[in-house]
Amino acid sequence: MSIRLPFIKNKQKTSNDKQMEMETENIPNHVAIIMDGNGRWAKKRALPRIAGHKEGVNSVVKVVRAAYKSNIKVLTLYAFSTENWKRPKPEIEYLMKLPKEFLHIHLPELMEKNVRIQTIGDFESLPTHTKKAVQYAIDKTKGNDGLLLNFALNYGSRDEIMQAIKQIMTDIDGSKLSIDSLDEQIFSKYLYTQGLSDPDLLIRTSGEQRLSNFLLWQLAYTEFWFTDVLWPDFSEEVFQEAIQEYQQRQRRYGGI
Ligand code: IPE
Ligand code: IPE
Ligand code: MG
């Protein structure tokens, strides 16, 4: 803490003031994270892959708390992709139990923090027990207007675009929509992310530098940040590192 001397009339900005400004200026509105590396984290410890997923849940808790503290409005977490069904059945079954476990423990804290839970993806094709737990949390938190915690569950961007196109064709057929009125804004309303602003910052852990079918449309002008840190090792410090780097970026959107 700096000591403010009473005789300084024209207050100069101290390095502490600058630090404070830096922390609150240009905070991303929407952060999306590809939470990757659970399996490798477990492998390094000679543990089964599911041990990595279990540990990964703790990182979810950490990142939600960090996003809440940083006043981020939307946090989208890629939890299960449409391609993850290719994995061994026991691993899938374990992953499908995690939302319930997470919510059972943390829903009270999320309520207290005024967090609203939402999902993107093909919700209907999830196992009934998963849907039930998640739907309960969605309903319970729907009146909250703080951080929007958006889980990408059984999400695939190509699947999202395909279902949007099919719905658009149906609406054109049923005269609910005309081809002439279709534009980017209306198209966006047919995506799972309808109503959400595009992510400002995308984080991917574990050293992979690819999108793995995540938000292909929505990431058109998003800033990307990659780290070698494996998801179970993710921490508030790593999150802050990403935010600070984002704050230095210059976004031009094709302008000058
Ligand atoms: C991310 O970790 C979690 C999910 C994709 C469900 P992985 O399970 O992909 O971990 P790695 O990439 O094999 O290390
Ligand atoms: C992306 O990770 C999906 C999630 C984090 C849920 P993957 O581990 O499935 O991606 P690839 O297979 O390495 O591209
Ligand atoms: Mg992976």
From TrEMBL:
Keywords assigned by UniProt, alphabetized: Magnesium, Metal-binding, Transferase
Domain of life from the UniProt record: Bacteria
Binding-site positions, Mg(2+): 36, 223
Active-site residue list: 36, 84 (proton acceptor)
Enzyme class: transferase
Residues noted as binding substrate in the record, renumbered to the chain: 37-41, 49, 53, 81-83, 85, 87, 204, 210-212
Quaternary context: Homodimer.
Function statement: Catalyzes the condensation of isopentenyl diphosphate (IPP) with allylic pyrophosphates generating different type of terpenoids.
PANTHER family to which the protein is assigned, alphabetical: DEHYDRODOLICHYL DIPHOSPHATE SYNTHASE 2, DEHYDRODOLICHYL DIPHOSPHATE SYNTHASE FAMILY MEMBER
Name assigned to this protein: Isoprenyl transferase
Organism: Virgibacillus salarius
